[in-house]
């Protein structure tokens, strides 16, 4: 990457050793970690190697390519294998990261996962802002008065961690209690939603989930009892 933020594919093509341009990337829910691997196998963070995804904008098809830059000196086709991550931290200067995948399939997998992580973070941020805009007294009092949101029972157990709605995360529960939380209109938690949708087939079926959602959808708001 040049100082102007544009990819210098000529540099990639002129590398004498392939490993000189390789990076080890690790994607977490809130960060992208970029490292080099030493000869002894140890990982070393690159400059700006810890990237906070909340500050990122993903560009799957970077602009400014030309015909001469689409292949390296070995003749390998580089077209459409690169993608750009623009990082704009609040407390420091913005910078650009450009990565080149080994195949279109690999690029698609990485960009899809990175995009999903960024979307999840921003959804969580919107949820948090929505609750912060409300009275700071109302939400805690509502939680305190509803023991089902924090007290263990025969069919539900809680962890000590809070989710994005400032209520205790569920450690495990019966299908009925999980569906109850899924359709609780007070807590539209992106954390719980993602976890449930990724794992519900382990303990129930799509028919059961859809029947529950249809029942809630057809029921008027006034008919849902308040705890």
Automatic annotation (TrEMBL):
Keywords: Guanine-nucleotide releasing factor. SMART domains: PH. The keyword Protein transport does not apply. Transmembrane segments: none annotated. It holds the Pfam family PH. Residues 166-227 form the N-terminal Ras-GEF domain. InterPro entries: PH-like_dom_sf, PH_domain, Ras-like_Gua-exchang_fac_N, Ras_GEF_dom_sf. Residues 1-119 form the PH domain. This is Ras protein-specific guanine nucleotide-releasing factor. The lineage of its organism: Eukaryota, Metazoa, Chordata, Craniata, Vertebrata. The gene is RASGRF1_4.
């Amino acid at each position: 990457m040049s100082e102007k933020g544009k990819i210098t594919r000529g540099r990639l093509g002129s590398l004498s050793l392939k490993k000189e341009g390789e990076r080890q990337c690790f994607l977490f829910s809130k960060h992208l970690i970029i490292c080099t691997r030493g000869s002894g196998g140890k990982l070393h963070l690159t400059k700006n190697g810890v990237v906070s995804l909340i500050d990122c904008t993903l560009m799957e098809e970077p602009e400014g390519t030309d015909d001469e830059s689409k292949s390296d000196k070995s003749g390998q086709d580089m077209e459409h294998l690169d993608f750009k991550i623009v990082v704009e931290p609040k407390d420091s200067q913005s910078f650009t990261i450009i990565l080149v995948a080994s195949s279109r399939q690999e690029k698609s997998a990485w960009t899809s996962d990175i995009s999903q992580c960024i979307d999840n973070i921003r959804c969580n941020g919107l949820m948090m802002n929505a609750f912060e805009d409300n009275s700071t007294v109302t939400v805690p009092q509502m939680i305190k008065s509803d023991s089902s949101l924090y007290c263990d029972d025969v069919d539900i157990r809680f962890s000590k961690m809070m989710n994005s709605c400032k209520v205790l995360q569920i450690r495990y529960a019966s299908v009925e209690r999980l569906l109850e939380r899924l359709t609780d209109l007070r807590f539209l938690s992106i954390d719980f939603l993602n976890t449930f949708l990724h794992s519900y087939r382990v303990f129930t079926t799509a028919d059961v989930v859809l029947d529950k959602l249809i029942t809630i959808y057809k029921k008027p708001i006034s008919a849902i009892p308040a705890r």
